[in-house]
Each structure stands twice: as structure tokens, then as C-alpha cells.
Amino acid sequence: MTETTVVTRSAMVPARGPWRTALADLARDRTAVASLAIFLLIAAICLLAPVYAHDIAHTDPFTSNVSGTTLVNGKTVPVLVPTTTGLGLGVTPIGPTWDIHHYFLGADNQGRDVMARLLYGGRNSLMIGISSALICCVIAALLGMISGYFGGAVDTVLNWFFDVIWAFPVYLLAISLSVVLLTNGLRLGPVSVGAGSLWLPVLIIAAVYVPYVARPVRGQVLALRGREFIHASIGIGGSDARILRRDVLPNVVPTVLVFLPLMTAINMLTESALSFLSVGVQPPNASWGTIINDGLGLLYTRPMVAIAPGFMIVITAVVLNLLGDSVRGALDPKARLRGAG
Amino acid sequence: MKHHRTAAALAGAALLSAIAACGSGGGASGGSSASASGAAGSSAPAAAGYEAAHAGGTLHLVANAAAGTLDPQINYTLQFWQLYQATYDGLLAFQKVNGQASFQVVPDLAAAMPTVTDGGKTYTFKLRSGVEFSNGKPVTTKDVVASFERIFKVSSPTAGTFYNGIVGAGACLKTPATCDLSKGVVADPATDTVVIHLTAPDPEFPYKLAVPHASILPASTPAKDQGTTPIPGTGAYYFASYDPNRALTLKRNPYFKEWSSAAQPQGYPDEITQTFGLTVEDEVTAVENGQADWLFDPPPADRLGEIGTKYASQAHVNTLTAMFYAPMNVNIPPFNNLKAREAVNWAIDRSAMVKIYGGANLASPVCTFLPPGFPGHVDSCDYTAGGGATWSAPDLAKAKQLVKESGTAGQTVGVVVQTDDVNKQLGEYLQSVLNQIGYKAVLKPMSSNIQFTYIQNTSNKVQISISQWYQDYPAASDFLHVLLSCASFHPGSDSSINIAGFCDKGIDAQMDAALKTEQTSVTQANTMWGQIDQAVMKQAPVAPLFTPKLIDFVSSRVGNYEFSKQFYMLVDQLWVK
Amino acid sequence: MTRFVLRRLASTAGVLFTISVLTFLIFFATPGVDPAARIAGRNADPATLAQVRRTFGLDRPLPIRYLLMMDHLLIRHDLTSYVNRGAAVIPQIVQAAPVTLSLVIGAAAIWMLLGVLIGTISAATRGTVADPVMMVAGVVGVSVPTYWLGEVVNLLTQDKWHSGVFSWVPPLGYVSLTANPAQWALHLLFPWLTLAVLYAGIYARVLRGEILEALNEDYVRTARAKGLSERRVLVAHALRCSLIPIVSLFGLDFGALVGGAALLNEVVFGLPGVGLLTYNSLQDLDLPVIMACVLYAAFFVVLANAAVDIVYAAIDPRVRRA
Asked: Do residues B336 and B328 touch, judged by C-beta distance below 8 A?
């Protein structure tokens, strides 16, 4: 009896269109709002990295500062402290000072300010995650639509293409491409991407996940293809392009929108894995993955250097996943019936 | 020599390089004269008696990865050369003792040092009798001849550089499959003698006979790379099994009877295993927990502190004559410009690099090509702030000025380094310095397995890189001649050890003169090498960085640690009981 | 049905061939990959280098080299590594496979158990606070970089707390099942848990979604109308149908993992499985081993895909004609 009541009730509310409804649902969902807020907060702080580095911490996070000094509790101390006891081996960077003007989270092996690098790293990680997710989703949507709509030979070839990329173990493909492209950069006709450019990880990660998004889109378009309203459009003489744009695309967009936050999270994690393996973002650029990589060489003495970026990745991925869930819930009419999301 | 791939920095990985044309001391020619290079002819090794109470047990070593083929005539890594000490023997051997005496060559499978005649071109050896391989077969002159021919048949990496002086070697290099050295290595089974004929005198020849590439193997060993199949040897141990993904096992050779404790001493553990696969951090933890006895790879920077304090009694730090340096390609921009190269030398803060490496107790800054304490070394420094004979501080302002004057400011520079932790940190630092003086530096880390050959090949257009060089034995030519002569520069080849591509006819002539002088007066030659060093540094084809020390970290149960300057830690002399 | 199966298998073979060509091309374009100098050793002279090139067939044109490699790998089974010379490639994989299998099967058992439990309980307790808490826990599991988690686990169990709470944790590495089952399990315990954390969350969430959707289906309403208890409805009816998509998801994930997708875990915990083999060969640019590992991994992924498709086709005739 409960379900019927819900249906009746919403049938009595004046229709606002699917997008407005979805947005309203989203606004009402507290998890979604909180997740979005946290994500925007993180993004905002990371975008302010130059301000932090220049005006607050007065440090250049991309220049090594091995022999430098800093102020801790009013005393001048070296940033990399040599061991003086025992055999006197090794040099340890200073730990977190909890002073936002001087090495808040401590220093890394090059004597650089970890907090400043964390913020700059966040900029790069988020940029890479979002751009590659966008590129991936757009290309996957296009290919999925074409493949599902036209069928036949086009579908077979594209499906083959998806199978090959997807069967190639994700990390292997990404590592292989990175190893090859990192030394020489990429040159495709007039387009040239330098070896140290951040576009390389973006493009590689986007390419690797295209089948992940394209297949569901293709499946959905295949199902749509047999529906009456498509037949109707064909019947009245609509061109393929028109049908794709006016009938297929609006149905595909929600699916892709749901993938967007999820892909951002997945791509961020993939980028961090690639940077961990030293085939992602290249020095002196920082990303959360490269800082973890640096931090693993300091795990036994200065664990904060590895823990801070790991923590940031977890939080960002969590809020993105939760946001993705909420978006899916808002866009999927049946979800309202389930009370799920 | 270059070091092995995974053991960045420190010794653990030093590859024995091609021994240069001439060594410093006249060495063992005729086995008579006092040879220099610490091979004090008369110093007897401190031969401690064998302490049977400590024999037994299994020595458990760990290394991050295997080191390639097990074939002693092909493998060129320190990781396995350290184990070959215990498993294979040549006609001669470096003494297996502590300290400076370890540079002295003593008879091994030869009964005595050879008689050298014919102006240094003929070496006559009497084969020791009663020695057996680990398969029970006795060592005969046939095995000696076959082993020398095998060096060429398997295309040993040093076939063309060490052993090309043997009569008949030229033909062997051209057509290895049919190598016939019957004119060069003449065996007389009746008298158990082997006579080696050279085309020209070579004072280095005894040293060349003492390295694993000249091991005497059974004549029945197939003439191709044996890879993971162990070859029987005459040493105190034999290789029982080898799985490059898991472990390498050595067991006591049942047919071994000690004939010379200096050349091939009886070992203590009953079994030695080297396990592969752990990350270096985990290896350190394993040694600390007593789960392993020694790690081959150098400890990561963040463990040095605890090793030096909490585990100080288990850590052994040894001086090496080696250097870390940054070769600059003098044939392509921007470093084809002398001012640019000088700027780099002025700008690098060598004490910062020392810090990155592990602190002043593990490395010292250098400013000359020959490391301090090396024959021929003279204290001088052209690139330190405020002048002086040793390096004290960088001069960034001067470096920036030089870069501006050179007109190369703003150019993109790729810094090629190995991916292991230490080299990567050094590379990041160098990149930062280059950026500060006005370049746009890009760091290109590469797997240690590829980096060394990559930076040698001029087709890769490598502008600057970081590399290491470890000596075989004290010979200034091993540094200067091998690394900076025109003969070592092969454009377009993966094997062009003159990485900087430096070819100066004037300096080449000076080096030839010094090499010639070595045959008569070592001290005079060393003075000449010192002058060549200074002449080279004026041209600054490289930026010498620092000279490293080696750290061996052993578990608490291990005793009797001995360090040979030739092969570093004597593995089979460790006590586990 | 047979035609469908045959078509699927043919397409599998085609995909594998394409991947092998792709791998070969990718690595051939890598600078510094010329193995001749590495094989010949440091400071080898040009004559030695040329000799090595001839012996390894390194001076033949690309397509010939590809065919030679495939011949040695698939027909003669005697392909050897460029780095560990003499070590045949296939035995290396055969030896590494059980390690990866041990890791994956154990982790799979744990994550399926956890996933099904958490997903079911979460669906049953929807509306209460337990539901979102469990879901967030699941999301956190998915969001943690697995290599980072592994390193932290090592730090705690091997170093910081090794003398206290975790003194029973054995050293890193692998002990085979046949040698010592108890040690085998003990050595794999933390790798299992670390790998399972990642997947348990995903499966719990998916299962929960499926169950909730199933709970609105007609047959569930019928069951309720018949008077069955809510718990019985959940477990006996809704859960059963919800497990089908889970099983297909499991098939795909398991296939990928068996092929070596858990390489980061193997690296961090020092397990000599296929993943570590792949990782090492990539670092060394050991082309024969890379080729074999990539084909091995791709084979299982494609096989799993095909198996899932065939099972679905067997169940649902509509799929066969798609």
C-alpha cells in the first residue's frame, strides 16, 4: 500500500521536468549536499595553493631546500637533521611543526614543505581526475552511442576495440603507455605533448577507462533502439544525427552523469597508483600519488608524509563516491520507489 | 666499474668494469717486484686459523632481485661476483682477506705465481694437483684451455677488452663458435703446465686472470650461456639451485679440500641462500628482526638513522674508492658550451648531495675526477666559493652569471637517473639546481636495468645524467682513461662508457704518455695522472659529486665480518653459529 | 547456442591476437629497450654486441621477430627471458600462478563473505543508522589506495608493533600450501585482508542495491502476501535473485585478479606471484616475460568475460541474438 501512496502523491505535484526534479531531490539529500560541500572545500583549498605557499608559508615547494633552515619554537633548526648519535648515519627531515607558517606537516627528503606540496598536489590530482573523467565520459558516450545505435559492422569493430582495451590489464596498459611516452613525449601529427606535461597521465588514464563507461552506454542505447519513440522518429524521416541528438542523447546523459563522480574517484586512484610506480606525474610536479611515493621512503621516520596524502585521497574518493550514489539516486526514477540511494 | 641495477648508490651493486689498459703498479709481472696498489708483495695475510666451532648453519641473505645469468664467464654484477668468490677459482685469485692485502693476487689453481718470460709476453703456470670440481672430476689442463676458449665462445663481455691480448684471440672474436686458442693457451698434460702467450706485454694480465670471467670450468660445460643452470666449480661451495624469482642456494662442495686459505678458504656456513622479492624497506626490517642475515641492497635513507643508532653494532661502514658524478654531454646543447658546464659545477651544493645520500659519515664531496686517497689524486678545486684546494660551498650567483653569458639560459634539460630511491632524490635535487640557475629541467627516472646503457647511447641525446663509478683496483687509468678517452667513445652504441662524449686529442696524448710511463715508473705516472685530472676538470665534462662509503648491515647472530676491498663482504666467512 | 559459443570464442582469440601485437609494438617503440647491450654486459665491444644481436635474432625485421617470439612462446614453449638468461618464461609463470591463485582465492572468499553479509544486513536494516554507516565503511574500503594500505599494514605488523601485538606475524614472503598449510595461511593473512578490503565494499553496495530493487518486485510481494516473514522473504527470495549479478561481477573480477591485477599487493607483500613477475619484467623491460604475462592476464579476463556472456546466454535467450 505504501508504494501506491507515494506514486499517487507525486502524480499530484505539478511536473517540473526530470532535471529540476532530480536537482530538487539532490538538494534534499543531506549526504549529497555534505559530500558536495566537502569536495568543493577541498578543491577550493587546493586551488589556493599558490596563496598558501607564497603568502602564508613563504616557501617554494618545487625547489629543493636540502641545506635550508627554518624556525621551530623561535629556534633556527636545519630542515634536514643529521643523526648525531651512534654511527651518525642518515639524515632525517623535520616532522610536523603544526605551525602553518613554518613546515606545518614537516619536510620531505628534499627539504620541501609537505603542506604546500600537499595543496599543489591536490590541484594536480583533482585536475587529472576531473579532466580524465570528463574526457573519458565524453568519448565513451559518443562511442557507446554510435556503437549501440548503428549496430552492424560499426558495432562489431567498436566492440572489438573495447574488448581489447579492457582485456589489457588496466595498470599494465597504463604503465606500458607511460613508460613509452614519458621518455619521448607524444607526437600525433600536429599535436605534440611534452614528456613532463600533465596531459600524458590525463590522456592515458582517460583512454584506459573508455570501455568501462562505453559498454553500459552501448547497452542502454541498444535497449533504446528497440523502443517505440525511436521508431517513431525514424518513421517521420528524422536523420540519424537528429535522432541521436534529440532522442538518444538525453537518455544517455543521466547515465554518464552518474559515472562522472565515480570516474573522477577511480581516475584519481589510478593516477596515484601510476605516480606511486613513478610513471604518472613527474617531478617536480606533485600529486597526491607522488607525495605518497616520496613518503614511503620516509614511512619509518616521518609517516605523516605518506599518511597525509593518503588521507586526502580517501576523503576525496569517499565524498565523490557518495555524491555519485546520490546523483544516481536522484536521476533514477525507480530509486524514489526503493528509497535507496 | 658500474654498479648493479637495484643496489643504487652504495657498493652492494658495484659492477666490476672493464679493467683499463694499464693498472697503476707494475703489479704482479714476474710476480717479483713490489707492486704498488697496496699489493705489498711481502705482506702476508692475517690468516686466522679455521675455527671449526663456528662452522655450520644456514646463512640467509636477501636481495631485491636476482642478478641475471649464473654463468661466471658472462655475469658482470657485484651481486653474484660476491658469491663466485666461494664457488669458482681461476689460475690466480685476489686474496680473500680483510683490508688492503685483498688487492694482492695469489696463486689459486696454479701451484705458484707464474714465471714470466719473453719480455712479459709469456706466462708459464704449473697446475695444482688434486683439485676436483663439485661433480667429482679432477681439474686438468684440458679444462684450463677449454675455459679460456669458452670466454670467447659465449661472447663474454670482457672477451674483447681483457683477453684480446692472448695469441689467437683476434680470430676468436671474429668467429667465436670455432674459437681455437691452441697457439695462445698451450697445455702440456704430461707436466701439468699451461703456457699463455700474449701478443704484447700486459702488466695487468695477472689481475685479469683473477676475475670470475677467467674461472676454470669443466671442459664439458656447453659453450653457450648457462643461464639458470649451475656450472660445477672448484670452490668451497657449489650452486645447488637457482630460481631468479625466488632464491639462489649454495651448499658445501663435498669435493673441496682447502689448498690455500688465502686463495680459497674453507667456509663456515653449511648452506647459503639468497632470497629475492622483498622491497628494500622490508629487507631491512627482516635483518632487524633476525629473519635474514644480510641485505645486498643499500638501506633506504629513512632507515639509516635507526641502523646507525639502535643497530650500530651490526652495521659496518667501509671506505670505497668510487664516485658519484654527473656526466654532461659535451656534444649537444646546452652542455656543448664550456660556460654552461662550469656553471653546473659551480652551482651544485655537494654537501646537500651528501646529505641526501645519508650524511657526512657516508659520503664526502669531491671536486676532482680521481677520488681522494687514490693514486694520482691531488687536492684541487676549481669550483668552490672562495677558492681553495677542497670543495667548501657552491656559488649560485656565479653559476647564474655563467649561464647568462653562455647564452643557453631557458633551454630544456633532461636529467636521466635511475628510479631507485637514492638516485631519484639526487636527480630531483640536481633538477632543482638546474632550474635555479636558469634552465628548464625535466627529470627522467629510468629502471636501473636500462638507465646505464641508455645514457651511453648518443642516439638518445641525453644531456645530463647521474652515474656511479667503482674501481676494480687502484689504477688512475681505470677512472681517467676508461671514462674520458677518445677510445671509449662509440657514438650510436649502447656501449660507450665515455658518457660525456669527451674526446680531446691533447688530453688523450697526455694519457697515452702516462700509460707508457707506468711500465717504468709508477710514481712518475701518478704525477702525470694528477696533472691530467686537473686539465680535465678545467674542461669540466662532468660534475664530480661525492665519494660514497659502503654500509653492510648484518643480523645480530652473524660474526666474523671481513671486508675485502676487491669483493667487499666475504660472504662465506661469516659465522652464524 | 553453439553458434553463439563459437562466435564468442572466435572473438576471444581475435582479441588475444590483437593484444599480443599491441604489446609487442608498445615495447618495441620504447627507447633504450635494445637488449643487446644489456645481454652483452657492461663495456662490451662492438664485435660482442653484434654477435649477441645475431644470436638473439635482434637484427631481423619487426614482423619476423614477433613471429619468432610467438613461435617460441606458444608452439615450442622454450621462450627465454632477456634478463634472466636461460630462465624459460613459461615455467616462471607456471610457478608464479599458484601464489597469485592462493592470494586471490583466499581474498575472494573473505570479500564475498563480508560483502554478502554486509550487503544483506545493510538492506535489512535500511532506514536505521546502521545502513549508512556500513555503506560509508564500504566506500572507504573502495577509496583507500591498496598499495598505501599494504605499506601501512607492513609498517605496523612488521616494525612498529611487531614486538608486541603482532609478534606472531611471520616474515614477508610466501610458503607453499603443500609445504606447510598453517604457515601458508599465516603468511597470506594480511595480504588477503588488504585485498579483500577493496572489494568487500563494492560487493556490499552492489548487493544492497540489488536486494532493495528485488524487494519491490512482484514475486516478493507475492511472497509477502503469502505470509512469509520478512527475513525469509529477504534471504530465500530476494537474495537468491540478487546474487546473479553479483556472481557475474565476481566472475569478471576474479578473472582479472587471477591474471595478475593484484600486482601492487604482491609487490608490497613480497609475494612471488604473476603480478610481481609482471611488475619486475615491466621495470626491466624484459620483453618475452612481459609478453607472456600480458597474454596470461588478458586470457583470463577475456575468458571470464566470455564465460559470463555464455552463462547469461544460456539463461536468457534474448542475449544470444544480440
From this structure: no
